[in-house]
Amino acid sequence: MTVSAHFEPVDPLGLDLPTLVAQFGERFGKGEYHALALFRAIYRTGMADPRALSEYGQNLSLAEAVAAQFPVHLPPVVGRSGDGSTYKFLLRLRDGLETESVVIPMKSYKSLCVSSQVGCKMGCAFCETARLGHLRNLTAAEIVAQVLVARHVLGEPIENVVFMGMGEPMDNLDNVLCAVRILSDRRGLAIPLPSITLSTVGHVGGIRRLARLATLAPPEGFPRLRLAVSLNAPNDPLRSELMPVNRHWSLAQLREALVEFPLPRPRDALFVEYVLLEGVNDSRAHALEIVEFLRGIKACVNLIPYNPGPDSPYQRPPETRVREFLQWLLEAGQRSRLRGTKGVGAMAACGQLGNPDRKRAR
Ligand code: SAH
Fold first, then answer.
1. Atom nearest to 122 CA in ligand 1
2. At CA 63, angle to CA 17 and CA 39, rounded to 5?
3. Domain residue extents for the chain
4. CA 204 to chain centre
5. Directed axis angle between helix 17-28 and helix 32-45, to 10°?
6. Is 105 helix (H, G, I), strand (E, B) or coil?
7. What confidence tens digit (pLDDT) does each residue in 246-292 have?
8. CA-CA distance, 151 to 146, in Å (whole number)?
9. Secondary structure element (H or E) that encloses residue 158, with its range
10. pLDDT per residue as tens digits for the range 304-335
11. Would the CB of 303 count as within 6 Å of ligand 1?
12. What is the overall mean pLDDT for the chain?
């Protein structure tokens, strides 16, 4: 075997298994056997020293070359805050920026809310992350690292991943999809596609691309990967005011893309998120407009009572109004539920991500 010295080291966390196998071929003249051993070790244990893997046997020079060219560096946890069971953690990236992720306990497992960008350029009027602006896209490795750290450094039984942290996943879709391919690989973290949700502001181009990919088999395709759409306003004037993306893709265009999104199984449905803002989008007329918008679409509405930031211009409606709003939807026959407000105190809830120190530094 010739170990070529001219290959640059690569972060293996950003490589899906087919790519890793191809790299092993190019670099070491080796195939799936050794690549898979490394892949398994990384995702099953969170660390990977090829020198300790039985698959590498007596081949110390190969193990050393692999260790040098595919070094596993998990970004350090540099902050943690939370109200008991729901908590946010920060990872420091190589350039000093930080990701924010939120661990959310469910009944028998935990869900991880991950970031796809540092900051965001969508500019939603009610969202903390929007105030940061868009600093940069996260790489696939930086997205995967959030899940790997949660599982193996923090020891959390993460079985579900939602892209509802900082950023707009459709605005960084290549990296997000590469990360999803890695997270869902059965030989690694093995989080099934139906347990992974991309949440979008209503990026119609991205939704259409995902719709096409949903019809193909893995690893190229992403059948039954879940889609959540942040509606937040059921008519164009209000939505354009709250969410600038609506000036680019209207509700009619969004609706058409949702109608065409494939939901092959009877129990599959889209999630439609609706942040309740007092006196802005929380009337009975708004509830009925939502029902009208979703007519003919298999969807479950998730109501999220607004989580205010430090100097928010909006308020959360009183509890009674939140319940009433849910009732209006249900009575009109729309599948709907109320999402908890876990993490509010820790600035770890929906729309509250966007490190205040970073904002000050800007
Ligand atoms: N860009 C993606 C994902 C990030 S936002 C998207 O728009 O879906 C995740 C969810 O939090 C969205 O549904 C968004 O509407 C909601 N959200 C944003 N700010 C919020 C706030 N202050 N309180 C409650 N929910 C908020």
1. 1
2. 20
3. 12-69, 77-361
4. 17
5. 130
6. strand
7. 999 999 999 999 999 999 999 999 999 999 999 999 999 999 999 99
8. 9
9. strand 158-163
10. 999 988 888 999 999 999 999 999 999 999 99
11. no
12. 93
Q: Letter for the amino acid at 88?
A: K
> What's the distance, CA 114 to chain centroid?
5
Nearest CA to ligand 1 atom 9: 164
Residue 127 tokens, joined: 């969202």
Helix ranges (H only) for 3-54 are 17-28, 32-45
CA angle 150–155–161, rounded 5-degree value: 35
- CATH 3.20.20.70 given to domain 77-361: yes
1: pLDDT strictly greater than 70: no
pLDDT given for residue 31 in this prediction: 87
User: Which residues, 6+ apart, have CB-to-CB distance to 156 below 8 Å?
Assistant: 103, 110, 112, 150
- Whether the pLDDT of residue 200 is over 60: the answer is yes
Cα torsion 139, 145, 146, 148: sign:
positive
| 245 close to ligand 1 (CB < 6 Angstrom) | no
Would you say the CB of residue 232 lies under 6 angstroms from ligand 1? yes
Q: Which two tokens stand for residue 90?
A: 């920060």
CB-based contact 114:143 (threshold 8 Å) = yes
Per the listing, tokens 């579900």 go with 160
Q: Where does the pLDDT of residue 358 fall: very low under 50, low under 70, confident under 90, or very high at 90 and above?
A: low
Tell how far the Cα of 93 is from the centroid of ligand 1, in angstroms: 23
For residues 71 and 354, which has the higher predicted lDDT (pLDDT)? Answer: 71
pLDDT of residue 322: 97
How many angstroms separate the CA atoms of 137 and 180, rounded?
15
Give the model's confidence band at 82: pLDDT under 50 very low, under 70 low, under 90 confident, else very high: confident
